[in-house]
Amino acid sequence: MYAQVLDQNDSGVKSREDMSEQEQIFQARIDAGEKIEPKDWMPDAYRAMLIRQIGQHAHSEIVGQLPEGNWITRAPTLERKAILLAKVQDEAGHGLYLYAAAETLGVSRDQLTEMLHQGRMKYSSIFNYPTLTWADIGAVGWLVDGAAIMNQVPLQRTSYGPYARAMVRICKEESFHQRQGFAIMMKMANGNDAQRRMAQDALDRMWFPSLMMFGPPDKDSTHSTRSMAWRIKINGNDELRQKFVDQTAPQIEFLSLTCPDNNLKWNEEKQGYDYTDPDWKEFFAVLKGNGPCNKERLGARVKAWEDGAWVRDGLMAHARKNAARTVAKGENENVQ
Amino acid sequence: MSSEWPLWEIFIRGQHGMSHRHVGSLHAPDAKMAIKNARDVYTRRNEGVSIWAVEALHIAASVPSDKGPLFEPSRSKVYRHPTFFDIPDDAGSM
Predict the structure, then answer these.
(1) How high is the mean pLDDT of chain A?
(2) Domains of chain B and CATH, by start
């Protein structure tokens, strides 16, 4: 899953003349499509922007496990349960790849965790909505992971090497997520009346929050110019949102469901669908912490962290003791 | 007590006789746990048959500013590539 570019301090692009020689060389490397690696020189603002974006992205993967984890014990069959478990486990892995990428920039894992827990770093707004029925698990995979893929595929070409490589791994695993979601939706949409109603209800609730995942409209977003010049971000928010609507509208039809947006209509001229923007007031309210599940989500993360402290400390103490003992015995238990 | 676990770099050997390849990193308290975690994180889809875990602080790396002196000398030695030599087709397979 994916993090929106939520709150970057992006003051725009410097002109060539305003750049130092080092900055000019750096920009030239990016313009030439070269990857920037951890030990390379980079502007402080580039480093800060990346830590923020990759950190938010990592947090989203981890917090994103919560709405789905909610249904693991109540999945309708053993097979669905195993699949959902594998999917949620993937999200943990994605969080880990991304934390590792952020750490190459000089921030520690504990610092990132702390900033999330103190509300100083955000995660994607979508995970502050509840998963009320099993159909929501279908809709999350289909729509939320679908929107995430749309965002993440171009990020495989982002300028920072470790981030790009993490995205390659993630994208490889992500299409399973979307397809398992759509498979649930197909089953529900072709089921009995109650199941069809559940599928429709899930779509009704998830549609606009999914559109929000691409971030506010470009015209209201002053944040994009510099991150685009640095190829931290590749596409505009509206461009990706349009692409998502164009891909998803026919799938809604395929499922014989109805889009909650009455204005969704094919526009022959622009060769794309017209659609209604989500309620941006709601979006900013959810970001601020006033969504339906913000407190619950962050509370669950903090509790897991605090409850797990004795395990982390215990394992570390055990490792230190073992290492000391190995030295004392003059043994080497490493394998060749 | 600061309890952040050390960082480990993970290398995986795939099925087809290739050498171990760096796949990413993770935190673990010791080597045993590093390998267990690597199995869960990096081999969920049959990616490998063998895992190496190396504590990151034991890896020595070249520095970017040495790129020139280290790697440029090999650029001019094009004769190290077989295509440098023009061998007539008549000479047969070579």
Answers:
(1) 92
(2) 7-91 (3.10.20.520)
